[in-house]
Amino acid sequence: MSREVKFVKKIDWLSILLYFLLVGIGWINIYSASVTDASTGFLDMNELYGKQLFFIGTSLLLIILILSVEAKFYERFSSIIYVIGLVSLMGLMVFGKNINGATSWYPIGSFTLQPSEFAKVATVLALAKFLSDIQTNINNFKHQLIAFAIILTPPILIVFQPDPGSAMVYLAFFFVMYREGLPSIYLWIGFLLILLFIITLKIGYVFTIIAALIIGLACIFFFFKKQLKRLRKTTLALTSLVAAIGFILAVNYIFHNVFQQHHRDRFTLVLGLEKDPAKLEKIRKTFGFNTNQSEIAIGSGGLKGKGWQKGTRTKGDFVPEQDTDYIFTTVGEEWGFIGSSLVIFLFVALLLRILHRAEQQKSKFSRVYGYSVAAILFFHFAINIGMVIGLFPTVGIPLPFFSYGGSGLWGFTILLFIFIKLDANRINEW
C-alpha cells in the first residue's frame, strides 16, 4: 500500500465533512443576506456572496497545501511562524487601513487582509511547541510567565488597533493551559480582574480601592496571621494587593482609550452607568438596535422558518452587519428553530470530534494544538451566538466558517486543517 493511500485512510474525514457542511451552509446564508435584484450570478465579484465563493475556492487550495506539507514542519517552524505573526500585527501601525475606527487590515487591491486571524494560528503553534518541550514545567513560575508572554503579546498588539473583540479570543488559551496543569489560581485571578473592572466602572475607583484595601489586608491578617514572619508569602500578598490597586487605577484609562465609543455605550447600558434619562435613552436606541433587531428576526422564524431568501427582516436590511457578526440571524429567520438547532448541532459535533481526536494524540504538541483549536472555535461560537440572541453584548467576534470574510475563513481553515494533518500523522508520532 502506497504512503499516499495510507495517509488518505488516516485522515479524519468526519471533521472534514463537518467543515464543508458548515462552510456550505454559511455561504448559502451569506447569499441570502446579500443577494439583490441587480445581482448577476454566483460569481459576481461585486457582491459579498461572490467574493465569499472566491474565498472558499482559495480555502481548498490552502487545504491541499496544508495536508501536503510534512507534519513535523508545523512544530519545527512554529517559533518562526509566531514571529512572523507578531511582525504582521506590528506592521499595521505603518501600513494598516482604518475601517470603522480600527486599523486592523492590510489593503490588497479591492480586498483586505486581517492579520489577527492568522496570528491565532501562530500563537497556537508557539504555545503547543513551548508546552510540549521536555524541559517545560507548567508548575514552574518562570515557565508560566513565558507561556503568558506567548499568549498575551498578540492581543496587546491587537488592542491598540483597537480591536478588543479579536483580543478577547486569546482568553481561550488559558483553558488550554488549565487542561495542561496550570494552577487554578490563575483562573480565579482572571475572574477577579473582570470583577474589579466591572465594580470600578460601577462605583468608581476610590471606593473600589478602599474596599480592596480592607478586604486585602483582612485576608493577609487572617490567612497569614501565623506566617507573617515568612517574608516571601507576605511580600507576595502585598505585591498582589498593590497590583490590584494599580489595575483599578488603570480601569478608567482602558475604558476611555482602549475601547471605542460603541463599546463604552454597551458597558454603559448593561451596567447602568448613565444616570441622565435622555442620554440613556439615546444610548439604548443606538446600542440596543442591533440586538433587538436580531432577536426579532430570529423570533419571527418560528419553528420551521420563512424559507430560503424569504426572510423579511433579512431582505429589509433591518439587522446591521448581517453578513458578518449577525449572520446567524438569517439562519434563525429563514430556517427557524429546526435549522438553527441543526447548525448548532454541527458546531458542537465538530468541537466534540476535535476534543476526542486531541485526547488520542501521542505527542503533546498535537494534543495541545488540538485543544487550542477546540477552545478558539468554542469561544467564537459561544460568544457570537450569545451576542446574537442577546445573552452577551456585541463585541465583533465572527461565527467560524459562517461570517463573511476571507481572512476569517482562511484563518479558521488553516487552524483546523493543521490539526487534521497532525492527527493523520499520529501513528508516526512515537
TrEMBL record:
Question: Which cellular compartments is it found in?
Answer: Membrane
Query: Topology in the membrane?
Result: Multi-pass membrane protein
Q: What GO cellular component term, any one, is given?
A: cell division site
Give the stretches traversing the membrane: 12-32, 52-70, 77-96, 141-160, 181-199, 205-224, 236-255, 335-356, 368-389, 401-420
Pfam family of this protein, just one? FTSW_RODA_SPOVE
Q: Which GO terms describe its molecular function?
A: lipid-linked peptidoglycan transporter activity
**Keywords noted in UniProt:** Cell shape, Membrane, Transmembrane, Transmembrane helix
Record has Membrane as a keyword: yes
Q: Where the protein is mainly located, per its record? A: membrane
What's a single GO BP term from this record?
cell division
Q: Which PANTHER family match?
A: CELL CYCLE PROTEIN, PEPTIDOGLYCAN GLYCOSYLTRANSFERASE MRDB
State what protein this is by name. Rod shape-determining protein RodA
Gene symbol of the encoding locus: mrdB
